[in-house]
Amino acid sequence: MIKTKGLGRGLSALLGDGDKKNSKDQNNNFSDFKTEKTPIHLLVPNQFQPRKNFEKKQLDELASSIKARGIIQPIAVRKTSDGKFEIIAGERRWRAAQLAQMHEVPTVLLEADDELAAEFAVLENVQREGLNALEEADGYQTLIDKFQYTQDKIAEMVGKSRAYIANTLRLKKLPETIQSMVINGLLTPGHARSLIDVNNNIALAKEIVNKNLSVRQAELLSKKNFESFKKIKIRNVDPNIKDLEISLEQKTGMKVIIENKKNNKGKIFFEYKDLDQLNSLIDKIKNTY
């Protein structure tokens, strides 16, 4: 069985994506494997495949390339108990080969357990474009749930920081409505992260999309909403004080907050929207006296 250590280099060699400087090491990793022709109907998808959506346009383009040049890089597979071959790496090529109406595809047979098959599935997709952040998070979560991976181990495996892994996994805390917005490209992962653990985040997500806000603007909007909610939650206002606030708001047209302390000292705040409101309040105070 291929050892987990150095898997990234081995995968790059198999996929043909590696750096030429490291070609010697990469070729050594798979020098003992023989390419076979396998009937296409005997291949089945990787059970740990994190990618849920394969874009039709990209598959059509790859199918056209396969018709013209064939499959250059073999598909990595492992044998299943029912005599079929589970794809470890190369599902896009397999799907495109079906569109190209091929009957056989080149394969490399590996001895891989579930853990290694899951690693390959995550690595192949993270190294390629088009995997959305939620699919990526699902791949990481599979490694954590099924194989007790730590975030540090995943970060080392995929060549990203632990903070990146943690932030990606946090996206799974969001409601499905917001997750769908990320999957469909309406929100970026940066937008979505600003909505985690924020009150009324679905409404905020829709506002971000409708107003086409930047990530920074989304962060400020979420922060403002959180702070406003926090103030509402922690204020325990005496009913008499609340009635007085409402009365003053009706007379001034402004938001009024009265902070009354135990010794009957305190502060009163008038929130004005523009200078006209401020001048109106000043005039009313002057006329009273």
Descriptive account of the structure:
The chain has 3 domains: 7-168, Conserved hypothetical protein from pyrococcus furiosus pfu- 392566-001, ParB domain (Alpha-Beta Complex), CATH 3.90.1530; 175-233, no CATH class; 236-288, no CATH class. With 289 residues, the protein is α/β, with parallel strands linked by helices. The termini are far apart. It has 14 helices and 7 strands. The strands form 2 sheets. The protein has a 5-stranded mixed sheet. The protein has a two-stranded antiparallel sheet with strand order 6-7. Helix 5 packs antiparallel against helix 6 and helix 7 crosses helix 8. Strand 3 and strand 4 (85-89) form a beta hairpin.
